Amino acid sequence: MSSTYLYGAHVRANGIRQHYLRYGGEASATRQPLVLIPGITSPAVTWGFVAERLGRHFDTYVLDVRGRGLSASGPELAYDTDTCADDVSAFIEALGLENVILAGHSMGARFALRAMTRGAAGIDKLVLIDPPVSGPGRREYPSKLPWYVDSIRDCIQGADLDTMRRYCPTWSEEQLRLRAEWLHTCYEPAIVQAFEEFHSVDIHQDLPGVSVPTLLMCAGKGGVIQEQDRAEVRDLLPSIRITTADQAGHMIPWDDYEGFFAAFEDFLGTEL
Is the pTM of this model over 0.85? Predict the structure, then answer.
């Protein structure tokens, strides 16, 4: 099957340079747009294997979150949850996208949710993929900060496959090579702030304000979202649909590629 990759590009939105990758093939302009916001240390290119398949059905955009990949980075920028959420809204507006499926994984899901309650326009559906549900007075996020920081520092120095395999022992060689190539672009202060805000910013308050159809996809083996979390989320947003990729850890499509797409069920209106 031919590639659905179209191009990478930059747009100025929310006062910064935002880089993105677009997938969808020749028919992309006629398809519903889908904007994907990756997690804390995942530049857009690392989601390419997912976007290729989404691009068969949707005009797909994968964003480099500020401080990652080829988007603006550095000490002069803010990296708080609200600012990054506003980046998402501004990105969609700058490209003139309408009727958007907004999807985010992990940190990206938190930014997508916060964008909704900060006025993101033109959103048709919301997909939250295993977002951290930690926050003030809540259970800690299961991953630890040194895992992120140490791996970034190793990649800045130049990490080989054996080094990367210590951090991601179940990943394929191709996945490890891509992570080793791009992880150095993750700006450490941005990653530290995002991780700290997993614990200091409560996104549960945003759920009652969501008015579009919403899917929460949970990793069956991730330990991020537990049964009591599902119950609380459903109480806050009774209309939400909750599914599970039973065989996957937090990095769902890396662990169970087919299970990831199956967990969308019919929410997107097409069989992926």
Answer: yes
Joined tokens for residue 178: 């891509």
Q: What is the CATH number of the domain that holds 186?
A: 3.40.50.1820
In the numeric block, the tokens 């120095």 are attached to: 157
Instruction: State how many domains the chain has.
Output: 1
Q: Is residue 269 part of a domain?
A: no
Q: Tell me the Cα Rg of the chain.
A: 17
Q: What letters, b where the CB count within 10 A reaches 16 and e where it falls short, cover 130-156?
A: bbbbbbeeeeebebeeeebbebbebbe
What is the per-residue pLDDT across 117-166, written as a single tens digit (0 to 9) for each?
999 999 999 999 999 999 999 999 999 999 999 999 999 999 999 999 99
Give the domain range for residue 35.
5-263
Low pLDDT (below 70) residues in the chain: 1-2
